[in-house]
Amino acid sequence: MLQEEGPIRFSKIISTALITMYLGFSAAINLSGALAPLKSFIQRFLQWTELLDPTNLVVSIEKIEKSRQLLLTHEDASGSDLEDKRVQEAWKRSLSTVHPDSSKLIPGPFRPAALLPFTAPMVFLSMLPVKSLKSMILPQVSFYTYSTVFNIVNGNASYDRRPHESILVGAGVIASSTFFGLFPRLLQVRFSLNSILSRSVIPVIILAQLSGMNVVASRSLEPLRGIEVMDKEGSVIGYSRKAGTKAVKDTATSRVVLFGTSAFIPEVFSYFFKRTQFFLQCPWSLWTLKLSCTILVMGLMVPVSFSVFPQIGRIQCSELEKEIQSATEETELFYNRGV
Predict the structure, then answer these.
(1) Could you tell me if 207 and 272 lie in one domain?
(2) Partners of 98 in beta bridges
(3) How do residues 210-230 score in pLDDT, each as one tens digit?
(4) Do residues 221 and 73 both lie within one domain?
């Protein structure tokens, strides 16, 4: 096991590595060993395709602990060390299973790689035609419960937060998100609305908007209490509410892109597929097509949405609170945006 100060030191190593990768001085995730910056969208996308490897969901605690020990040993790694495949694999395993703020293990079902297999079926079921309100309750509750817990677990954890606060916030967010998700469906059943607008367009818009609002609500403590901002060496300068607001806003935008696109494209395919001769002969094939399309679109959109903004965000010091500006001479600071 790690020593008592190990988690704190390991968390700083992870944060520093993420910053240096963003600035372009680390090859930890680059399998070729080349020093490749992660400033561009394409580079972040390629990194996420590696971190979203499904095997990261079942990797043993023993292997993760060995990765921690290896990275602690190579804390001051040279370029040759970073080209070591063992070190590169340890970085990938740590970045995909360990929270960069707390250095705690992320539960398997809520690691970034779990988002696709858990939410794709929920999105598909949420967009099915409404036969009764009861048939919509379970998909909506399941989707917003998972989304809320995922957002809390993968949000910024650098501020002081008690367990009961997360539980209370989470319960309120789940209840409110589910209500607003079911409300338009209730109107559809109550007034027998059957136009394409009420059946397809409005549900997609509501799903996208509620996904973004779910992030804002479940991570509402970050803008209130402030999150850590660091210099390029990973040293904490202070806690900023403005950085917390920006982190939550950017993550909420990425969720709107993810779930809005993942719900919209299958609806478009379904609209045209219903007008084919094949559908008239095999009506059941519509659901197979729609489920397959949802999974394929989400399979692409998960790494795309995670890559829209860097996980380590940068913010000008002049945009932050006065006390932070007076505490450093740096013109630019960094923070963990979360996932």
Answers:
(1) yes
(2) 105
(3) 999 999 999 999 999 999 999
(4) no
